[in-house]
Design brief:
The chain is mostly helical. Among the domains are: 73 residues, Annexin V, domain 1, CATH 1.10.220; 79 residues, Annexin V, domain 1 (Orthogonal Bundle); 78 residues, Annexin V, domain 1 (Orthogonal Bundle), CATH 1.10.220.10; 71 residues, Annexin V, domain 1 (Orthogonal Bundle), CATH 1.10.220.10. It contains 23 helices and no strands. The termini are far apart.
Length: 435
């Protein structure tokens, strides 16, 4: 029997949870757009773009991305939800009907909150590997997605995965990577969200662990694989850092030397080395991952999208600084010179620089031509008024995942009262900040 992963689905959201979450987000976000933001007005403007697409029988993803890139995540979520509630346009489903492409992936990322973006990329990687669309190993990418998540983020990640794909993430990992696989165990342990997050560490325990690592030889193992997995997935990053420092100070060699003696599979060694590098400096680790994505041929847009769009409200500023330090070149300059899609390039640079629009002097964004970023009425716009999403074939290239509408904002339509309530809070916060 052929092994498959469960495809995503459209599902209802929780209205009460939605009301509380929107209000909570308004108190946390620092909105970089004008205080006169009006989701109803701006949704109406997006409707005009979509109506032009209907008239021209083309869904122009460049135009949609151009429009979305001028808003932050919270604003985009409000606009798109109002678009569905008020005008019956399900933008997520419309975009999902498009063929796989970097521009499609980028637009979907702009319609998705960060955790859900990570979930979709995680599932896409598993699916691509299972269907033979990726030849290389995916475990390092899976670990990279998880490393920066807190225990609370991991809980949300698990919940989102189950809601989107109606399956256990652990089972999907074991289907693709193998049930007895050491790296399957490592990833599943990371997904338990059991890392100690309080400050402080224990030097005495760190010394004992460092000694056990040092005593490992090609013939003698003083610390078993399961214990190493527990240490790397449950100890706080400050405790891990103490272990590595003590080891290197006392024994005069990098901790990576001990990892190479413990494991003999190169991918296993690289995965644990990645965790070590992340522990030392997350921003340095991420900056190097960004560079690798930019140097791949073809360019790894999945990773670029995950870092630039998914980290914008988290640690993108630190990643940019580390990138400049490592490569003596600003990240936006590299993006300018290496990306060939103008609209994706514009969006990335707008996010990175927070001000520069490289297409400011290039006329309007709406084009109705026969470019690769547009689709005919049959493959995209037949979802204009649809409220349900049918399943599609597994992905053939690495985009953000496939067929599910977003639970967090696109499941159940929320009322105008909810929108107005959130928007009044939003305006109040802006007023207080201005004072």
């Amino acid at each position: 029997m052929k092994k498959t992963l469960t495809r995503s689905k459209t599902y209802d959201g929780d209205l009460t949870k939605m009301d509380k979450r929107l209000t909570r987000q308004a108190t946390l976000a620092s909105f970089g757009h004008p205080p006169e933001f009006d989701y109803k007005r701006d949704a109406k403007h997006l409707v005009k773009i979509l109506k032009q697409c209907v008239t021209a029988h083309i869904l122009d993803l460049d135009s949609i991305l151009h429009f979305l890139s001028t808003y932050n995540c919270e604003q985009r979520m409000l606009i798109v939800q109002n678009l569905e509630y008020e005008y019956n346009y399900n933008l997520v489903d419309m975009v999902l009907e498009r063929p796989e492409s970097p521009i499609r992936s980028c637009v979907l990322a702009m319609l998705t909150e960060p955790i859900e973006l990570y979930v979709r990329h995680f599932h896409d990687l598993l699916t691509l590997k299972l269907t033979g669309k990726i030849d290389g190993d995916i475990t390092r990418l899976l670990i990279e997605i998880l490393l920066g998540l807190s225990n609370m983020d991991i809980e949300k990640f698990q919940e989102s995965y189950k809601n989107l794909f109606e399956n256990s993430i652990d089972k999907d990992i074991e289907i693709v990577l193998g049930e007895k696989n050491l790296l399957s165990k490592l990833i599943i342990h990371l997904l338990k969200g059991k890392r100690y997050e309080e400050s402080g560490n224990s030097p005495s325990i760190a010394k004992m662990i460092a000694k056990n690592f040092h005593d490992v030889t090609s013939d003698v193992t003083t610390i078993d694989d399961n214990t190493i997995i527990d240490i790397f997935t449950c100890d706080s990053f400050s405790q891990l850092s103490t272990i590595f420092d003590i080891y290197e100070d006392k024994y005069g060699e990098p901790i990576q030397e001990a990892i190479q003696r413990q494991f003999h599979n190169q991918i296993e060694i690289e995965c644990f080395d990645d965790i070590i590098e992340f522990t030392r400096s997350p921003s340095d680790y991420y900056s190097k991952s960004l560079r690798q994505a930019l140097e791949k041929y073809p360019i790894d847009y999945m990773t670029l999208i995950r870092f630039i769009i998914g980290h914008v409200d988290k640690d993108l500023d630190e990643i940019k600084l580390e990138y400049l330090k490592n490569y003596d070149e600003p990240l936006d300059v590299t993006i300018k010179t290496r990306l060939d899609n103008l609209e994706i390039k514009r969006t990335f640079i707008l996010i990175i620089t927070k001000e520069e629009d490289i297409t400011a002097n290039v006329g309007g964004p709406v084009r109705f031509d026969s470019s690769n970023n547009s689709s005919s009425i049959g493959s995209g716009l037949n979802r204009m008024t649809s409220k349900k999403t049918s399943t599609t074939t597994p992905p053939t290239t690495p985009p953000p995942s496939t067929t599910a509408s977003n639970k967090s904002l696109f499941g159940r339509k929320i009322s105008h009262e909810t929108f107005d309530k959130f928007f009044s809070v939003f305006k109040t916060i802006r007023t207080h900040k201005a004072d």
